[in-house]
Protein backbone atom coordinates (compact mmCIF):
# COMPACT_ATOMS: atom_id res chain seq x y z
CA UNK A 1 0.00 0.00 0.00
CA UNK A 2 1.29 3.42 -0.93
CA UNK A 3 1.50 5.52 2.24
CA UNK A 4 2.73 8.74 0.64
CA UNK A 5 0.75 11.85 -0.20
CA UNK A 6 -2.33 10.64 1.67
CA UNK A 7 -4.60 12.40 4.12
CA UNK A 8 -4.79 10.42 7.34
CA UNK A 9 -7.12 10.92 10.30
CA UNK A 10 -5.76 9.50 13.57
CA UNK A 11 -8.13 9.31 16.54
CA UNK A 12 -6.38 9.52 19.89
CA UNK A 13 -3.45 11.10 18.11
CA UNK A 14 -2.23 13.60 20.69
CA UNK A 15 0.03 11.20 22.58
CA UNK A 16 1.46 7.70 22.73
CA UNK A 17 1.10 5.38 19.76
CA UNK A 18 -1.21 7.82 17.96
CA UNK A 19 1.30 10.66 18.08
CA UNK A 20 4.14 8.38 17.04
CA UNK A 21 2.06 7.17 14.08
CA UNK A 22 1.33 10.80 13.18
CA UNK A 23 5.08 11.60 13.22
CA UNK A 24 5.85 8.60 11.02
CA UNK A 25 3.11 9.47 8.52
CA UNK A 26 4.31 13.09 8.39
CA UNK A 27 7.84 11.97 7.53
CA UNK A 28 6.40 10.08 4.55
CA UNK A 29 4.86 13.28 3.20
CA UNK A 30 1.28 12.78 4.31
CA UNK A 31 -1.24 15.29 5.58
CA UNK A 32 -2.17 14.20 9.11
CA UNK A 33 -5.20 15.16 11.19
CA UNK A 34 -5.21 14.12 14.84
CA UNK A 35 -8.11 14.11 17.26
CA UNK A 36 -8.50 13.74 20.98
CA UNK A 37 -10.51 14.95 23.95
CA UNK A 38 -7.72 16.92 25.56
CA UNK A 39 -7.24 20.24 23.76
CA UNK A 40 -4.04 20.99 25.69
CA UNK A 41 -2.42 17.75 24.47
CA UNK A 42 -3.58 18.47 20.92
CA UNK A 43 -2.08 21.96 21.07
CA UNK A 44 1.21 20.57 22.45
CA UNK A 45 1.37 18.10 19.55
CA UNK A 46 0.65 20.92 17.09
CA UNK A 47 3.40 23.03 18.65
CA UNK A 48 5.88 20.16 18.27
CA UNK A 49 4.67 19.31 14.75
CA UNK A 50 3.15 22.45 13.17
CA UNK A 51 2.13 20.59 9.99
CA UNK A 52 -0.47 18.62 11.98
CA UNK A 53 -4.13 19.55 11.80
CA UNK A 54 -5.85 19.15 15.18
CA UNK A 55 -9.54 18.69 15.93
CA UNK A 56 -10.86 18.25 19.46
CA UNK A 57 -13.32 15.37 19.55
CA UNK A 58 -14.56 12.75 22.02
CA UNK A 59 -14.94 9.33 20.40
CA UNK A 60 -17.55 8.33 22.99
CA UNK A 61 -19.81 11.24 22.06
CA UNK A 62 -21.98 10.60 18.96
CA UNK A 63 -22.46 14.35 18.38
CA UNK A 64 -18.68 14.86 18.43
CA UNK A 65 -18.27 12.06 15.88
CA UNK A 66 -20.73 13.76 13.52
CA UNK A 67 -19.05 17.14 14.04
CA UNK A 68 -15.65 15.53 13.37
CA UNK A 69 -16.94 14.07 10.11
CA UNK A 70 -18.33 17.46 9.06
CA UNK A 71 -15.04 19.23 9.85
CA UNK A 72 -13.02 16.65 7.94
CA UNK A 73 -15.45 16.84 5.03
CA UNK A 74 -15.02 20.63 5.01
CA UNK A 75 -11.22 20.17 4.84
CA UNK A 76 -11.60 17.82 1.87
CA UNK A 77 -11.48 14.11 2.47
CA UNK A 78 -9.33 11.44 4.06
CA UNK A 79 -7.68 8.41 2.54
CA UNK A 80 -7.06 6.54 5.78
CA UNK A 81 -8.95 6.40 9.09
CA UNK A 82 -6.55 5.23 11.81
CA UNK A 83 -8.75 4.32 14.79
CA UNK A 84 -6.24 4.57 17.59
CA UNK A 85 -8.47 5.95 20.34
CA UNK A 86 -8.81 3.77 23.39
CA UNK A 87 -8.93 3.74 27.16
CA UNK A 88 -8.35 1.15 29.83
CA UNK A 89 -9.75 1.63 33.29
CA UNK A 90 -7.42 -0.85 34.91
CA UNK A 91 -8.00 -4.18 36.54
CA UNK A 92 -11.41 -4.78 38.02
CA UNK A 93 -11.95 -6.67 41.23
CA UNK A 94 -14.39 -9.26 39.91
CA UNK A 95 -15.40 -10.26 43.41
CA UNK A 96 -16.74 -6.80 44.17
CA UNK A 97 -19.24 -5.37 41.70
CA UNK A 98 -20.03 -1.70 42.07
CA UNK A 99 -21.50 1.22 40.17
CA UNK A 100 -17.93 2.49 39.69
CA UNK A 101 -16.95 -0.76 37.93
CA UNK A 102 -20.02 -0.60 35.72
CA UNK A 103 -19.31 3.04 34.77
CA UNK A 104 -15.70 2.20 33.94
CA UNK A 105 -16.74 -0.74 31.76
CA UNK A 106 -19.43 1.34 30.06
CA UNK A 107 -16.90 4.10 29.33
CA UNK A 108 -14.47 1.58 27.77
CA UNK A 109 -17.23 0.11 25.59
CA UNK A 110 -18.40 3.55 24.48
CA UNK A 111 -14.91 4.65 23.46
CA UNK A 112 -13.08 1.48 22.42
CA UNK A 113 -15.93 -0.25 20.63
CA UNK A 114 -19.00 1.88 19.89
CA UNK A 115 -16.98 5.02 19.12
CA UNK A 116 -14.86 3.15 16.59
CA UNK A 117 -17.94 1.63 14.94
CA UNK A 118 -19.61 5.04 14.69
CA UNK A 119 -16.53 6.61 13.09
CA UNK A 120 -16.21 3.72 10.65
CA UNK A 121 -19.86 4.11 9.68
CA UNK A 122 -19.52 7.86 9.20
CA UNK A 123 -16.32 7.76 7.14
CA UNK A 124 -16.84 4.57 5.09
CA UNK A 125 -18.29 6.35 2.07
CA UNK A 126 -15.48 8.89 2.06
CA UNK A 127 -12.90 6.11 2.21
CA UNK A 128 -14.50 4.18 -0.68
CA UNK A 129 -14.41 7.07 -3.13
Description:
This protein has one domain (about 5-129): 3-Layer(aba) Sandwich (Rossmann fold). Helix 3 (about 60-75) runs parallel beside helix 4. Strands 3-2-1-4 form a 4-stranded parallel beta sheet, with helices on both faces. It is an alpha/beta fold. It is built from 4 helices and 4 strands, in the order E-H-E-H-E-H-E-H. Strand 2, helix 2 and strand 3 form a beta-alpha-beta unit. About 25% of the residues are buried. It has helices at about 15-25, 40-50, 60-75, 100-129; strands at about 5-10, 30-35, 55, 80-85. The radius of gyration is 16 Å and the shape is globular. It is about 50% helix and about 15% strand. The two termini are about 15 Å apart. Keywords: Oxidoreductase.
- From the spread of the alpha carbons, the general shape counts as globular
Strand portion: 5-15%
Any idea of the CATH class? Alpha Beta
| Gyration radius, in Å | 16 Å
Low-pLDDT stretches are: none
CATH H-level superfamily title: NAD(P)-binding Rossmann-like Domain
Helix and strand string, N-terminal first? EHEHEHEH
Structural class: alpha/beta
Largest sheet at a glance?
4 strands, parallel
The CA-CA distance between the termini, in Å, is 16 Å
Counted by DSSP, the helix tally is 4
> How helix-rich are the residues, as a percent range?
40-55%
Keywords: Oxidoreductase
Family: Belongs to the short-chain dehydrogenases/reductases (SDR) family.
InterPro entries: NAD(P)-bd_dom_sf (IPR036291), SDR_fam (IPR002347)
Organism: Olivibacter domesticus
